[in-house]
Structures are given as C-alpha cells and as structure tokens.
Amino acid sequence: MTNKILSLAVLALALGACGKKEQPAADQAGQSVTAQAPVTAAPAYPRKETYFNLPLATGKGTLDLATYAGKPVLFMFFTETCPFCRKAAPAVEKLHRTYGPKGLNVMGICIQDEPEAALDFAKALDVTFPLAHKGRPVYKAYKAQGVPYIYLLDKDHKVYDVWEGYDPSYDPMMVKAIETLLAKK
DSSP character for 51? Predict the structure, then answer.
C-alpha cells in the first residue's frame, strides 16, 4: 500500500511539472529575454446588445458585425414584398454607393428565413450591398416595430440614429447623420 501511495505521489509531481511554463532567462539588468518581440493581442470585439452575426443570403459566409469593428454601419430591416422597403432600397443603395467609399458600411437584414426572399429583393431593386436573412431575432433585439427600420451605428456600434419606415423626406436627415459620423474619424 505504501508503494502505491509513493508511486502516485511521484506521478503527481511529474505531471505537475509538465504543466509549468519555463520562465524566460533574465539579462544582466534583470529584464526577461525572449527570442521574439512580445506580441500584443488585438482587443476583443465587445459584443454589445447591438451585435449580430447572420447568414448571408448568398450562402457564402455570414454578416458579422464584428467584422466592421471601428467603422460606422447603416443597415435596414426589410421583407421582400414590403412596399415601403422597396421604396427605401434605392435610397439606401444610393447611400451605399456615395458613402461606402468614404468608410460607411451598408447592409440589409431580411427578417424572413428564406435566403431567396433577400436575393429576389436585391435582384428586383439592383441592391449591391450585402444582405443577410434569418434576421427576426436581431430585429426583436433592436426593438424594431415594423419594416423598413433603418439604423445608423457609430464606429463603436452604438445606435446613433433610427428611421422608422421610409419617406423620401428622410434622405437629407440620413445624409446629415452619415456625414457627421464620417467627419468624426
């Protein structure tokens, strides 16, 4: 019995020693010396209540808000056949073409589950910005009350402005808000 206990104790010490990391050697001044320069990890994306990650309608990847960290984002919740969404899409597309090259990221989130709904919407309205589907949980998290709902997030992805529904009279307000955000770079 004593031999078993002694064997277990030796085994525990050996296993414990394998788990320890070697400390780097110290130079003359007492500073640690390593073979490579220390690498600083990029800060992790803080997944706030505004975070989302949805499948792209194309089936090629996801629309992950973390990909746009540090950049302003404009997105619209929509359904394929909503007449107001169909009126809003050309205005949002124009914002995409005008301000995308200046740093605004524009996207659409279809609250329907079928990717075809988003793809048909894009095709019918010549939408070129990325579209996701299965967006109902995100729609609920953002407390949207209908479609379209258009959100502008600042570079920290805090809600900067919201437009409920769509009317052409919103266009100058959206432009002003976008230009204000882009000027804050």
Answer: -
> For residues 178 and 74, is the Cβ–Cβ distance under 8 A?
yes
Q: Give the number of other Cβ atoms within 10 Å of residue 50's Cβ.
A: 17
**HSE-up of residue 34 (Cα within 13 Å, Cβ side):** 6
Domain ranges of the chain: 53-183
User: What predicted TM-score, i.e. pTM, was given to this entire model?
Assistant: 0.76
Rounded to whole angstroms, how far apart are CA atoms 115 and 134? 8
Fold classification of 53-183 is Glutaredoxin (3.40.30)
Identify whether the C-beta of residue 144 lies closer than 8 Å to the C-beta of residue 77: yes
Taking the C-alpha atoms of residue 9 and residue 52, their distance in angstroms, rounded to an integer, is 50
Q: Which residues pair with 109 in a beta bridge?
A: 77, 132
Tokens of 52: 């989302």
**DSSP three-state, residue 10:** helix
Nearest CA to 131 among 56, 72, 31? 56
74 close to 105: Cβ distance less than 8 angstroms? yes
Which residue has tokens 């505004």? Answer: 50
Profile the chain (185 residues) by mean pLDDT over runs of 10 residues: 43 35 37 38 69 96 95 98 97 98 98 98 97 97 96 96 97 98 88
SS3 73: strand
